[in-house]
């Protein structure tokens, strides 16, 4: 008997010593046993886990001791807080702890596992009650402490762990949110996490039942019932008390079937649970969240047949990696649909059920391809099912859900960059490059459109990190091309994520649109100035009695402007209908614009634009002047009007082409605003030119404009080549050059053989064709004329300096008294004619 007394005396001495040394610390807590609630909860859970482990390895006696330890640990702040906030949760914890102790002594592993699952759920329910009560009081410190004991929706490749509650508590502590506002946000976050985990627990119970794993099966079913208790108040609010009572009974049956090991009962109860929860959303989404989730659903669905098609050929699986990507997108689509199902069913329950059934068919197709290599569904079959689902969803979704949002694009960017990293880790650099290009496409035709209007430098940095480098980091394209290890690629990826976060924050704020407006204004003004100069040259000799002939030209010019606006509207309609083709469309528009620029540049550099194009207008003008002038709608008036229309519409059509690339990148509103500004400046120049009869050096101005457009051509070639690399139409062969990335933005210079080679080719083509034309049309005829004696050497030099002496098709003298005579508007004498 003396040994127990000795132990008791030693224990008392130790407690006295601890009490003496810990007195200062004890003064800082409310009770001697006070420790964070989450730490006490960990001790309870760890004790129960030790009991399960001991039951397997050591036997019932050791298991019972561990269970007793877990029951003892449930005390202090944890128990007091839960008891005050949610008496039902406290009662459930204590009753389940008693069941756990009995199960441990009896060696009943399934019952012990079920009790552990139920205790975990009850602790989380109680903690949620304490957290919400503290938030409602505006007590940020208590809310922060108890929020550490919570459940999270499992993070996936499509969703990240929710942080809304944490952010709300921080704002509550900083005085930026009221207690009620913070409570609402925290409640929504916790309910969403409970429902997300409930779905997973039900799936775990089904899976473990099929495998015959009694312990995990019972634990998942009991924990699912506990999570249901956390959601039942919200369910009652949404579906009514009778439905809530029925669902509660069904969850009780589910737990009982698992405890008995009754697979048939489990299947029946699970089916009733699924029916009860069908379409139920514990945390209703805000309109913005619903739209974002809808965009995710539509994008995931669209990507399923794409990845499936890459991984199969006919009815055989050829690339497992692509099939796994299809599985991932399918899982994301199922999760997104589950979140929106309740709202969709309210709009059209029958259509929602059809979409759900088709989604199950699609799921079966993808699952078979993931487990088999032959006899799988063909890509056309998968596409047909996906098309049906997409059509059904778009018919019942509200219009605001179908409008593209930046948030869904950021989600897809993160997803595809995850795929890229996984491919690099597996040594599959071709798949990594494909994923990188997809991530870039999501950025290019999503956030970047608006970001370029708000923060050109940030858009430049993000694009640089995806391609060839920025902020002293190598770009992902460069790293993948040189097969860099995953560690290096991860460094760039982390920095890219930070800059994408900056982009999201920037687009969430108001910002000026100066860059886009300015660019659009410059394009319109540049082309408008060219049109004004052409009209001025055409009407220069319409003076004196012929001045009235200017009117039909100007009327035709106004009609040309009107037709240009109609072309813009038509182009907008066409491009919006083709927007799904994304970067490929921009590449095509760029190629068309390059073709127009090549033609214009050749006109300028060969001086054909002035000597023949304007000459052609003069010849047409003379022809129209000879027509009879009978009435307002005479042939002469119609001819001169047509001349003005074609002169302006040609420039207007070019302007529409050039603005389309800008519109695809930045949106319509800013482009229209800039175009209006450019048009206003053009009108001002027109007034100065025509109303004030200012004599301008048209020929020299056109030559300068030609040089500028030649520069634009080289820039556009580089940018279009880079866009074609983005579509996969051109390969990517990086150059070992450290070029500043702003060179790509302003000059279209990117460090790849393909882009720089295309620019060099375009420059050589234009300049070379100029010298070739000069040789064929000027120097060769001059040499022949000298040999024939038609020209003297001094006249030959003059002819070489002024190619129009040879190239001009016919002269057209203009009276020296004409006040509107234009320099260069008249044709010089033909070769061999000496001028005084």
From TrEMBL:
| Membrane-crossing residue ranges in chain numbering | 528-545, 552-575, 587-609, 630-649, 669-692, 701-721, 756-773
The scientific name of the source species is: Paraconexibacter sp. AEG42_29
Q: Where is this region: Disordered?
A: 792-836
The entry's family comment says: Belongs to the oxidase-dependent Fe transporter (OFeT) (TC 9.A.10.1) family.
Signal peptide start-end: 1-25
> Which terms in the Gene Ontology molecular function aspect does this entry carry?
ferrous iron transmembrane transporter activity
Its keywords, alphabetically, are:
Membrane, Signal, Transmembrane, Transmembrane helix
Location(s) in or outside the cell:
Membrane
Record keyword Metal-binding present: no
Output the Pfam families linked to this UniProt entry. Answer: FTR1
Cellular component GO terms, alphabetically?
high-affinity iron permease complex
Q: Where is the composition biased (Low complexity)?
A: 807-822
User: Cross-referenced InterPro entries, in alphabetical order?
Assistant: FTR1/Fip1/EfeU
Q: How does it sit in the membrane?
A: Multi-pass membrane protein
The protein depicted here goes by the name: Iron permease
């Amino acid at each position: 008997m003396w040994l127990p007394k000795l132990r008791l005396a030693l224990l008392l001495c130790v407690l006295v010593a601890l009490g003496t040394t810990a007195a200062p610390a004890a003064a800082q807590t409310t009770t001697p046993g006070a420790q964070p609630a989450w730490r006490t909860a960990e001790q309870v859970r760890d004790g129960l886990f030790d009991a399960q482990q001991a039951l397997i390895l050591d036997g019932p006696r050791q298991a019972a001791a561990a269970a007793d330890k877990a029951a003892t640990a449930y005390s202090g702040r944890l128990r007091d807080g839960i008891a005050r906030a949610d008496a039902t949760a406290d009662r459930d914890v204590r009753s389940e702890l008693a069941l756990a102790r009995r199960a441990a002594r009896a060696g009943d592993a399934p019952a012990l596992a079920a009790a552990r699952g139920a205790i975990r759920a009850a602790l989380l329910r109680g903690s949620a009650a304490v957290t919400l009560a503290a938030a409602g009081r505006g007590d940020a410190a208590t809310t922060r402490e108890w929020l550490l004991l919570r459940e999270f929706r499992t993070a996936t490749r499509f969703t990240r762990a929710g942080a809304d509650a944490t952010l709300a508590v921080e704002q509550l502590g900083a005085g930026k949110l009221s207690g009620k506002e913070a409570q609402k946000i925290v409640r929504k976050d916790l309910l969403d996490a409970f429902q997300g985990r409930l779905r997973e627990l039900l799936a775990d119970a089904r899976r473990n039942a099929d495998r015959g794993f009694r312990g995990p099966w019972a634990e998942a079913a009991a924990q699912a019932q506990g999570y249901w208790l956390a959601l039942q108040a919200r369910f009652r609010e949404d579906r009514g008390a009778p439905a809530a009572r029925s669902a509660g009974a069904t969850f009780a049956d589910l737990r009982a079937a698992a405890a008995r090991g009754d697979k048939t009962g489990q299947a029946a109860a699970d089916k009733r649970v699924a029916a009860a929860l069908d379409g139920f959303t514990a945390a209703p989404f805000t309109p913005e969240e619903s739209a974002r989730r809808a965009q995710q659903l539509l994008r995931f669905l669209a990507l399923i047949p794409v990845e499936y098609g890459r991984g199969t050929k006919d009815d055989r699986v050829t690339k497992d990696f692509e099939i796994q990507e299809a599985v991932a997108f399918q899982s994301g689509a199922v999760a997104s649909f589950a979140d929106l199902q309740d709202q969709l069913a309210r709009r059209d329950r029958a259509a929602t059920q059809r979409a759900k059934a088709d989604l199950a068919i699609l799921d079966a197709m993808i699952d078979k391809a993931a487990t088999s290599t032959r006899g799988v569904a063909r890509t056309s079959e998968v596409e047909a099912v996906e098309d049906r689902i997409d059509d059904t969803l778009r018919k019942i979704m509200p219009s605001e859900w179908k409008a593209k949002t930046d948030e869904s694009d950021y989600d897809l960017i993160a997803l595809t960059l995850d795929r890229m990293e996984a491919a690099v880790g597996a040594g599959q650099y071709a798949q990594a490059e494909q994923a990188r290009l997809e991530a870039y496409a999501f950025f290019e035709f999503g956030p970047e459109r608006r970001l370029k209007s708000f923060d050109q430098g940030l858009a430049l940095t993000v694009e640089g990190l995806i391609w060839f480098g920025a902020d002293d980091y190598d770009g992902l394209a460069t790293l993948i091309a040189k097969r860099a290890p995953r560690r290096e690629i991860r460094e760039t990826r982390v920095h890219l994520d930070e800059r994408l976060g900056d982009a999201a924050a920037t687009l969430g704020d108001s910002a000026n649109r100066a860059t886009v407006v300015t660019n659009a204004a410059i394009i319109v003004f540049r082309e408008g100035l060219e049109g004004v100069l052409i009209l001025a040259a055409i009407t220069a000799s319409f003076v004196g009695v012929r001045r009235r002939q200017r009117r039909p030209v100007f009327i035709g010019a106004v009609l040309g402007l009107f037709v240009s606006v109609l072309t813009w509207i038509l182009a907008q309609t066409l491009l919006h209908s083709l927007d799904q083709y994304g970067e490929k469309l921009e590449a095509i528009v760029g190629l068309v614009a390059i073709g127009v620029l090549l033609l214009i540049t050749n006109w300028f550099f060969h001086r054909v634009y002035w000597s023949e194009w304007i000459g052609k207008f003069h010849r047409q003008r003379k022809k129209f002047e000879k027509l009879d002038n009978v009435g307002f709608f005479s042939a002469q008036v119609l001819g001169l009007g047509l001349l003005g229309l074609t002169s302006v519409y040609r420039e207007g059509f070019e302007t529409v082409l050039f603005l389309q690339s800008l519109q695809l990148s930045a949106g319509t509103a800013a482009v229209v605003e800039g175009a209006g500004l450019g048009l206003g400046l053009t009108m001002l120049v027109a007034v100065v030119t025509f109303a004030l009869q200012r004599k301008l050096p048209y020929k020299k101005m056109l030559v300068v404009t030609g040089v500028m457009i030649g520069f634009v051509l080289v820039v556009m070639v580089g940018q279009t080549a880079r866009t074609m690399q983005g579509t996969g139409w051109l390969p990517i062969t990086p150059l070992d050059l450290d070029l500043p990335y702003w060179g790509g933005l302003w000059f279209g210079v990117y460090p790849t053989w393909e882009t720089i080679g295309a620019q060099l080719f375009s420059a050589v083509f234009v300049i070379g064709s100029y010298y070739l034309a000069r040789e064929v049309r000027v120097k060769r005829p001059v040499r022949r004329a000298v040999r024939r004696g038609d020209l003297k050497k001094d006249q030959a030099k003059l002819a070489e300096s002024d190619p129009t002496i040879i190239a001009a098709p016919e002269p057209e003298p203009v009276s020296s008294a004409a006040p509107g005579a234009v320099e260069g508007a008249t044709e010089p004498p033909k070769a061999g004619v000496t001028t005084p």
